[in-house]
UniProtKB/TrEMBL annotation:
Keyword Signal: yes
Protein name: Amine oxidase domain-containing protein
SUPFAM superfamilies in UniProt: FAD/NAD(P)-binding domain (SSF51905)
Organism: Venustampulla echinocandica
Signal peptide positions on this chain: 1-25
Stretches of the chain forming a coiled coil according to its record: none
Length: 470
């Protein structure tokens, strides 16, 4: 082929164009000493890692305080543990994970800001309760959980000694020995036995609540919860708690990266942190002066992070419980009953874990809500199989033949992150909180306080002045 002057120019122009397209498509940056190609670079005041309860709250509040934000979330939606099933037949929503919040100004203001209406609600669930030994499937018609009132009153008196545990992990040292006792021993020491069954049901997700250090139980089941049990919690008027996150997603617009995986985090620069993210439309580098960290700080969740020796040594100490939710379809079980798992072989007749806490109505015919717990993480296949086989063996009067299947299933694991009493006494949380503000990073989320969205929003709100300071 003969190269003429004009097609030589065209080819040269084509190469230039290609080169410039490539330059746009792949910029080169260095993170943690490794050169990487990125498709685009965005700069924000704050990059928020995780778009669940605290990540979304941080994004909305920081935006309102005049900061530019970018949220990085691995799932295809904001909301984390908040999940709503929409029945395809009736369109009826059912919240099968987060159900209620505390009746507090911070909660009401946040929902008003996102234009989601709230109503009062009890946390007790609906449906007449019936007790079954889920291991044998047999009903326990004579079982009663008893009156928890005396135990609850004595527990409230104990809680009043440690008001600071409801605000975070700013503990008093030496840590009071009662807070380090396995909760089962604490119950006996202070004659709280009558509330044993109630607390097991309420503190779902904590694994073996009676083996956990009392500190974690008090943080999860504190005085404001006791108050709200009496006066009522809040839930969404539409009974669709995901609305909060749908409205937040619309509000935040392009400042959310969904379905996005963190490839690397480099916080070595004095001026800014760099977060390299694989998004559905390419690799994005987010540069920001501050990071808000809201994800479970387990080492396996932090691949690609430039963890310091201290961060690594702290995060590796966390153990976690397992918590799973599902909606059961075609089980043949009545749709209006609340079935509680009771074991004749446990101290407070609480469910033996791993296993189902119970099966409750969804308000939708033929669909039932299932909660499942374990002391550590389990494979999803094992949990699903156990849910189906347990449901199949329940000998409930009036049961019809069913063909049980899971309409939805969700893994909320790792759930409660804990460290042993010795670590707590030795200042683990003092060192953990010492990380606040170091290396551009501010920490919030359940591992830094407790699994309670309302209390977590309070905790996050208290961090904002530090995050917004120049
Ligand atoms: C079944 C169930 C019922 C509950 N009921 C209530 C209730 O009624 N009221 C209440 O107040 N609380 C309730 N909770 C607890 C509440 O959901 C949690 O306390 C709260 O969601 C914790 O907020 P968070 O921001 O720490 O975590 P999450 O809300 O879980 O948010 C973390 C987010 O980070 C994302 N993420 C994780 N790792 C990465 C990563 N590597 N990269 C990017 N993104 C990542 C996750 O996908 C998630 O969206 C319930 C929890 C469960 C599981």
């Amino acid at each position: 082929m003969t190269l003429t002057a004009s097609n030589a120019l065209l080819s040269f122009g084509g190469i230039l164009l290609l080169a410039s397209l490539r330059a746009e498509a792949a910029l080169s940056v260095t993170l943690n000493g490794t050169p990487c190609s990125v498709d685009n670079i965005v700069t924000r005041d704050v990059c928020i890692i995780g778009g669940g309860s605290t990540g979304t709250y941080s994004a909305i509040r920081l935006s309102d305080l005049g900061k530019t934000v970018m949220v990085v979330e691995e799932k295809n939606r904001l909301g984390g543990h908040t999940e709503t099933y929409h029945d395809p037949v009736t369109g009826t929503p059912h919240d099968y994970s987060v159900v209620v919040w505390h009746d507090l100004d911070i909660v009401r203001n946040y929902f008003a800001r996102l234009n989601v209406s709230l109503v009062k609600s009890s946390a007790g669930g609906s449906g007449a309760k019936q007790y079954f030994d889920f291991q044998t499937g047999k009903p326990l018609p004579n079982y009663s959980p008893g009156d928890p009132t005396p135990g609850l009153a004595a527990y409230a008196a104990q809680l009043a000694k440690y008001p600071y545990v409801e605000e975070g992990f700013d503990l008093h040292y030496p840590v009071p020995s009662d807070l380090l006792l396995p909760f089962g021993q604490f119950v006996k020491k202070h004659n709280l036995q009558s509330m044993g069954s109630l607390i097991f049901g309420f503190a779902q997700g904590l694994g073996d609540v009676f083996a956990q250090p009392t500190l974690y139980v008090m943080k999860n089941f504190g005085s404001d919860i006791l108050k709200n049990i009496k006066t009522g919690f809040l839930t969404t008027a539409e009974h669709d708690n995901s609305l909060l996150y749908e409205h937040a997603t619309a509000d935040l617009g392009p400042n959310v990266l969904l379905n996005s995986q963190i490839l690397a985090v480099d916080r070595s620069d004095r001026e800014e942190a760099k977060v390299l993210v694989k998004t559905p439309s390419g690799v994005t580098l987010v540069k920001s002066r501050k990071l808000v960290f809201t994800i479970p700080p387990k080492l396996e969740n932090l691949r690609g992070w430039d963890l310091s020796a201290l961060e690594r040594s702290l995060f590796r100490q966390f153990s976690n419980s397992g918590y799973y939710t599902a909606i059961l379809r075609n089980s043949g079980l009545p749709s209006n009953l609340s079935l509680v798992n009771v074991s004749p072989h446990t101290e407070y007749n609480h469910a033996a874990l791993p296993g189902l806490y119970g099966i409750t109505p969804t308000g939708i015919e033929n669909l039932l809500d299932v909660k499942y717990g374990s002391v550590n993480g389990l494979p999803d296949d094992q949990v699903k199989k156990d849910i189906l086989s347990t449901a199949a063996r329940l000998q409930v009067p009036g049961r019809t033949t069913g063909n049980p299947e899971l309409a939805v299933y969700s893994r909320h694991t790792p759930f409660e992150l804990t460290v042993p009493p010795k670590a707590i006494a030795g200042g683990f949380y003092k060192r953990l909180y010492g990380l606040q503000g170091q290396r551009h990073t501010y920490y919030t989320g359940a591992a830094f306080h407790t699994h309670d969205s309302s209390l977590l929003w309070q905790f996050t709100e208290a961090l904002l002045p530090n995050i917004t300071a120049v």
